[in-house]
C-alpha cells in the first residue's frame, strides 16, 4: 500500500466513523447543517496585511455572524506556502494540525503523499445530497485533483495576462484599443515599438517557479512532463516546447523582449522602459496604484492557430481536522468561502478570480465590479483556458524544477540554443525523477 493510499484510508475511516455524531450513519451520506453545539476551528492562510489579510478577517466575521456556534481562528503563516507546509508538518507530528489550510496548487502532490487529510470527494459524499460541485467548471475542479480524486477545493485562482502601456503603443502607431492577440502579432508590434521608442516591446515574467515557461510551452502544444510506461518523464524537450522557447529567445536576441528577473521587469514596465508586462492578474491592484500611464490589459498571447493553456496560480482549501465535529464545521466554513457571497468578498479584496460559475456576471455579486475593473474581466475571460500548474514529482522535484529554470536562463542569455539546453535539462530531470509513478 502506498503512503497516499494509507493516508486516504485512515482519513476516510475516521470520517465515516464519526458520521453518527451528525445523524448521518448509513450508506448514502446526505446534507447536514452546522453543528448543534459550540465548536472552534483553526484556518491557516498566507494572506498578508497588504494582500488579503483584512479580507480573510472580513470573511471570518461574516461567517460567524451566520453561524454563531462556530468560532474560526484565522492564523497567518509567514513565508507563503513553504512556510505553511513546514509549520503544518510540525503541528501534524504533534497531533494538533489546523482544521483548514490553504495549499498552493504546486504542492498538491507533496501534501497528498505526506499528510493525512479528508478529501473533498469524501466530504461531499458524506455531507451533501449531490450536485454541490455542479457550479464549478471541470477544468477548475481538475486543479484540486490528484490521481483522479478531488483532494482540495480550488479557491484562490489567478492566471497570466498581458498588461500594456497604451501610450507606448500609440507612440508606435499602434491602436491601443485593438492590441495584438498572438505572439506573432506582438513580435511585429515590438518591432514598431523598438523603432519608434528605442525600447523593447515585451516582458514575460521570469521566475524560478517555471509558471510563465509552462504557459508558453503548453500554449504551443508542448508539455512539461508526460506519462510513459507508468512513469513520469520530462517532455519539455519536444518540438513544440523547443519552438516556443526559441521564439522567446529570438525576441530577446532581437532586442524586442526584455530578459530580466521579475522585480526588475516590474520596475522597467512601471518606468516606461518596456511596453508590456505579461504576468499574473494578482499584480493588477499594485500596478494600477503605481502606474503613471494609461494601464490596460489583454489576454495572454496565442500562437497562431493554437489555443493558450494557462497554468493556475493560487491555492486549494484542504481539511486536516482529525476530530469529526471540527471536520464538519470546517466543511461549513469552506462552503461559505466558496459561496457566491464569500467569493464576491474574496475577489473584491484580493483580485483573485472566482472559481465558481455565475458569480462574475451576476448583478447580485460581481457584474458591476467587473465592469468597473476591465483588467480583472480579461482574466475572468481566460478561466476556461486554465490548466493545473505542473510540478515535478518525488523528493527531487525542486531540483528538477531548478534544472528547467537554469535551461531557460541559458536559452534567454544566448548561451545555448533551445534545442540543446532543453535536451540537457530533460536528461537531468529524468535522472532526478526516475521511477516516479504517474498519478
Automatic annotation (TrEMBL):
InterPro entries linked to this entry: Bact_solute-bd_prot1 (IPR050490), SBP (IPR006059), TAT_signal (IPR006311)
Localisation: Cell envelope
Keywords in alphabetical order: Signal, Transport
UniProt xrefs under Pfam families: SBP_bac_8 (PF13416)
CDD domains linked: PBP2_UgpB (cd14748)
Main location class: other
GO cellular component terms attached to this protein's record: cell envelope
Signal peptide: 1-25
Family listed: Belongs to the bacterial solute-binding protein 1 family.
Protein name: ABC transporter substrate-binding protein
Protein source organism: Rubrobacter taiwanensis
Amino acid at each position: 500500500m502506498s503512503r497516499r493510499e494509507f493516508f486516504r484510508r485512515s482519513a476516510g475511516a475516521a470520517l465515516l466513523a464519526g458520521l453518527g455524531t451528525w445523524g448521518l450513519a448509513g450508506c448514502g451520506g446526505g446534507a447536514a447543517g452546522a453543528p448543534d453545539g459550540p465548536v472552534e476551528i483553526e484556518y491557516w492562510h498566507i494572506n498578508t496585511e497588504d494582500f488579503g489579510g483584512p479580507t480573510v478577517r472580513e470573511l471570518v466575521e461574516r461567517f460567524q455572524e451566520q453561524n454563531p456556534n462556530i468560532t474560526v481562528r484565522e492564523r497567518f503563516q509567514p513565508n507563503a506556502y513553504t512556510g505553511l507546509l513546514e509549520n503544518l508538518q510540525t503541528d501534524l507530528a504533534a497531533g494538533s494540525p489546523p482544521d483548514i489550510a490553504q495549499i498552493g496548487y504546486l504542492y498538491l502532490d507533496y501534501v497528498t503523499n505526506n499528510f493525512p487529510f479528508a478529501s473533498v470527494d469524501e466530504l461531499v459524499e458524506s455531507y451533501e445530497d449531490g450536485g454541490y460541485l455542479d457550479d464549478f467548471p471541470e477544468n477548475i475542479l481538475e486543479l484540486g485533483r490528484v490521481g483522479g480524486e478531488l483532494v482540495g477545493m480550488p479557491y484562490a485562482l489567478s492566471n497570466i495576462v498581458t498588461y500594456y502601456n497604451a501610450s507606448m503603443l500609440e507612440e508606435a502607431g499602434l491602436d491601443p484599443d485593438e492590441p495584438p492577440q498572438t505572439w506573432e502579432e506582438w513580435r511585429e508590434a515590438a518591432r514598431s515599438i523598438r523603432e519608434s521608442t528605442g525600447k523593447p516591446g515585451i516582458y514575460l515574467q521570469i521566475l524560478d517557479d517555471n509558471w510563465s515557461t509552462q504557459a508558453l510551452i503548453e500554449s504551443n502544444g508542448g508539455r512539461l512532463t508526460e506519462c510513459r510506461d507508468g512513469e513520469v518523464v520530462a517532455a519539455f524537450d519536444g518540438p513544440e516546447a523547443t519552438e516556443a522557447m526559441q521564439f522567446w529567445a529570438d525576441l530577446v536576441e532581437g532586442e524586442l523582449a526584455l530578459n530580466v528577473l521579475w522585480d526588475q521587469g516590474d520596475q522597467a514596465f512601471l518606468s516606461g522602459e518596456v511596453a508590456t508586462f505579461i504576468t499574473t492578474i494578482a499584480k493588477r491592484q499594485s500596478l494600477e496604484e503605481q502606474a503613471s500611464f494609461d494601464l490596460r490589459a489583454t489576454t495572454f498571447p496565442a500562437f497562431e492557430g493554437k489555443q493558450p493553456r494557462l497554468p493556475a496560480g493560487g491555492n486549494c482549501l484542504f481539511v486536516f481536522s482529525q476530530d469529526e465535529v471540527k471536520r464538519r464545521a470546517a466543511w461549513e466554513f469552506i462552503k461559505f468561502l466558496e459561496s457566491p457571497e464569500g467569493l464576491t468578498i474574496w475577489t473584491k479584496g484580493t483580485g483573485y478570480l472566482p472559481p465558481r460559475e455565475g458569480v462574475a456576471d451576476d448583478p447580485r455579486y460581481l457584474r458591476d465590479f467587473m465592469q468597473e475593473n476591465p483588467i480583472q474581466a480579461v482574466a475572468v475571460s481566460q478561466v476556461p483556458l486554465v490548466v493545473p500548474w505542473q510540478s515535478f514529482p518525488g523528493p527531487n522535484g525542486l531540483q528538477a524544477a531548478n534544472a528547467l529554470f537554469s535551461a531557460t536562463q541559458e536559452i534567454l542569455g544566448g548561451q545555448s540554443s533551445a534545442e540543446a539546453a532543453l535536451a540537457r535539462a530533460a536528461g537531468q530531470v529524468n535522472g532526478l525523477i526516475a521511477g516516479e509513478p504517474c498519478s
